[in-house]
Amino acid sequence: MEHHTSYLQKHASITRSRINNFINDGQWRDVNLKSVIEYLRVSGEPHVSLEVWSAPGQDRPAFEHAVKQKYRPAHIGETFGPSWTTHWFRVMVNIPREFVGRRVRFEIDTGSEAMIWSADGEPIMGLTGGGGRERHVDYLLTERASEHEEPRQLYVEMACNDLFGNGDYHQRPQDRSIYYRLNSADLVSHNEPVLALYYDLQVINDMANRITEESPRSWQALAAANAIVNVFEHTDLSTVEPAREIARQFFKAQGGDSNHQVYAIGNCHIDTAWLWPYAETKRKAARSWSTQLQLMDVYPEYKFAASQGQQLEWLKENYPSLFSKIQDKAKTGQFIPIGATWVECDCNMPSGESLVRQFLLGQHFFKEHFGEISDVFWLPDTFGYASQLPQIVRLAGAKYFFTQKLSWNSMNRFPNTTFRWVGLDGSHVLTHMAPSNTYVGQCTPGELMDSVKRHKDLSYTNESLYLFGNGDGGGGPLRDMLERMRRMENLDGLPRVKQAHPREFYEHVEQTTKDLVSWKGELYFELHRGTYTSQANNKLWNRQSEFVLRDVELLSTIAHSKDWQNFTYPADELTRLWKLVCLNQFHDVIPGSSINMVYRDSDKIYEDVFASAKNLRRCALDIIYGELPPLANATPEDTGFVVLNTTSWMRTSIVAVPAQLESMYMRQTDVDSSLVQVCKGNGVVLTIAANVPGYGAQVVTPSAHHNTRAQFVPVRVSASETHGSYVMENRHVRVVIDSNGRITSYYDHAEKRELVAAGAAGNVLELYDDVPDYWDAWDIEVYSLEKYRALEGGDVTISEEGPLVASLQLRMRLSESSTLTQKISLSAISTRLDFETNVDWHENRKCLKASFTWDIVSDVATYETQFGVVQRPTHRNTSWDIAKFEVCAHKFTDLSEFGYGVALLNDCKYGHATLENKMSLSLLRAPKAPDEHCDMGQHRFRYAVYPHVGSFNESNVVQEAYQFNVPLQVLPVNPSALLEGHELPLGQPCFSISGARNVVLDTVKLAEDKSGYIVRLYEAYGGHARALLTTKLPAASVHKVNILEKRMCEDANNSELCWLSHSKTVEVVFKPFEIVTLKFISN
């Protein structure tokens, strides 16, 4: 009987355990393979000497500054900190003779992130200290040490943070101070054949563990691994070669041509901010990408993709030599700029124009610095994908989309892997969601096998993308990943794998597949619904910045067209501001899921945006109204003022008389006039600005009210006979408010209709328990809807009695620590009821909502999205319906039936829900991680109820929501200086639209090439349209362009546009939800 007989099949699990013990750290490390991977390790003097200089505070000094400072001796075991500080080490390395002829690495473990620099200031390689799979602490000094090695000087920049910021962000405050230990600084040489055997066994062992036992290949892998353990003897390195031969024989077996094909691409998804501030991301990008450049030289087959134009621009500015090397590697095809956008942005809350600018900025950067735009929209980690993205992607010159985030869905398994994603207007992009369900793959056989097992469209296509490399905090692929990848390229038992540009994958799918399925509409993410609400002020400032830049671009374009010789369009400054706004739309910033430090930075960014925009606006108005004196010079005879309308339709609104004119205005106005109101609280004088033209201006004077007075009915407010209730009434509606600020009746006079459902109410303030399953700032869970209380104990008083505006003041204590005041207002000229809200918020994991229950029946509610609307069910028939218990909307949500509807408007809120006839708006949350101070403090926001005759498609809800967010602007000029017969600048609309009330003119800006100006419009309701657009600005011709402002194909252009040069009018045909960008060529 032979003594080597194995009972492998009878004790497979024990054998697997044996092999795991053989290659892993643990109690057997002194006798297993790990015991002889290292040939020699030395440390300390004279081999490694260390000196350190600590930068003051949280400064992140450049190399040129750091090397000039005074250094002191440093030693192993010393700690450095606190968190977010920087420490520079000067290292002198002397390779001893024992390393002659061998590959030598320098290992330094600071317990944190770090960067190795050459003595002449070149960033060489990033490091990640500590434990875990992301650990990377070595740098190759030489491939082969000589007998006479010269001393080497290096610098190590230590950042006192780890790859994921400042430690455990779920349970510990992120503002705490952590000190990091200098664990080692050694010279190391490995037994390279042993290291190669280690990589062999990692692959073979994982195949034995992951391939099912029904497959002979599983047993072959287990047998090979077991044989290697039997052959190897840690005290005799001559056994390494026979062991490797066993591995080589195993690797000889190749897969067939029909095997699944995996296209692998390295990446190091770097969150532009998350558990670290923007300033640290600049260093993370340098650390991560310098490492990848080193690996590209060693592994010529290696290909690496990097997204986000912002991070590349930061690298260009701060590490120019490194950026130049990246450009060189891009030419060879190893470094692949990808993604098309400025940052990997959130796709729920940014406006349509913001998404356009993400692509415009990103694609321009890629084209300028890498010679081509990206044809792949690359967004692996964003929390949902809006339904207009396919159209925007196509208009940005891309045609492919990659993500994997929907694999995180909490309720439903998304049914597709490779499919055509069809947007609102019918545009489609070829979309792929990596079936490995990760963008931080570790190059293991199991992950490649998952690419087949989890692929949901194998009946149509037999290939997939696979992303590998450490990420979120950066880092990227490591040497051991690439070694495993080499062994798995064409190996029996695994899918075939090759490293390739993602474009190669998409093009192959296009060429070989004809029957892909389609998915129409939004890709709703069934998780992280709390991100629609967390960090409320950040969301407010995002909305405001989007609108202020919109107005500045419009006014600057008008000023440039009026007097281009004396006014230079501020293109560079506007680009800078848009970059800042787009930066803050990164998918962990605007969603509210970053640490407090990030929001301190974003606050400063918004302050910068608003201050600069205010100055730009003033400069443009100085040109437009330069011949008019300022209001500050008004005389007692001056009573008129100028009101500007920056929406594209005529408006009538109530405005505040400029403070300089209040007394004069009142003296020349009939004291009994119902068209002027002095507010009780602050003395502000209100009046009506009637029929202000779209994209135009109008002078408002007391005499202008004569035509309005005959049709005017004042608004009234009174205490009701019912105790504690108040009645607000104008010619359109009658509203009853109870002592808790709730709407108990909302009656439409003309329609003779009560809007509030029997026994129900509107503006019910509700406080919910908000303890999610795991992700604090990210999630609102469905079970939270089960535990809440409707808030009571309010106090309501009359604050304004008309005739223009009637207001009630609600004061309510939300809890022992939080209070709310709310001004509830009804004007004389609208059905709209406004709620101006101030909250002093100091809660712990609570969510404040306002709910409204209407006497309306509809199976769907309509929610505004970018450049359009989406309809979602109001019932919960299926698990897909249930999952949408909290959804994203922009300026409004609408619930309509035949003949009537009610819209809920807002100025900064994005979390909405409609269940049957109850509409809810999420106002504030109070998560404690990763920002323990999230939303604590003062908040001011507005929302409104807008009843309307007709269904949503018959209404003007889109226009009303714009008006709620874009008030008429009172200009600081005095129109009394206008000479008789002279027109007020912008007295006639600079743009007007006729024939299509469903078309919205959203954006006017100077063209990027400065040869004309851009006008962007969209169809807002979901129907066809034929619109006539007339411009008063100079225009010799017009043509249709994409959002990169490149002329679209001639056939489509000629069939869609009809230019009437004598009237400067163009006829534009729209499909439902189509975005149209026109370029007017100036004379």
Describe this structure in words.
This protein has 1083 residues and is an alpha+beta fold. Helices cover 24% and strands 29% of the residues. The chain has a nine-stranded antiparallel beta sheet with strand order 35-36-37-38-47-44-43-40-41. Strands 3-2-5-10-7-8 form a six-stranded antiparallel beta sheet. The chain has a six-stranded antiparallel beta sheet with strand order 34-33-39-46-45-42, with no helix packed on it. The chain starts with 11 loop residues before the first helix and ends with a strand. The model has no long low-confidence stretch (mean pLDDT 95). This is Glycoside hydrolase, 38 vacuolar alpha mannosidase. Keywords: Glycosidase, Hydrolase. It is an enzyme of class 3 (hydrolase).
Percentage beta strand: 25-35%
Shape by Cα distribution: elongated
Largest sheet: 9 strands, antiparallel
Low-confidence runs:
none
Q: Helix share of residues? A: 10-25%
Report the radius of gyration as a whole number of Å: 33 Å
- Number of H- or I-type helical stretches: 21
Average pLDDT taken over every residue: 95
Beta strands, count: 56
Give the neighbour order of strands across the main sheet.
Answer: 35-36-37-38-47-44-43-40-41
Class by SSE composition:
alpha+beta
Distance separating the two termini? 100 Å
Organism: Coemansia furcata
Keywords: Glycosidase, Hydrolase
Protein name: Glycoside hydrolase, 38 vacuolar alpha mannosidase
Enzyme class: hydrolase
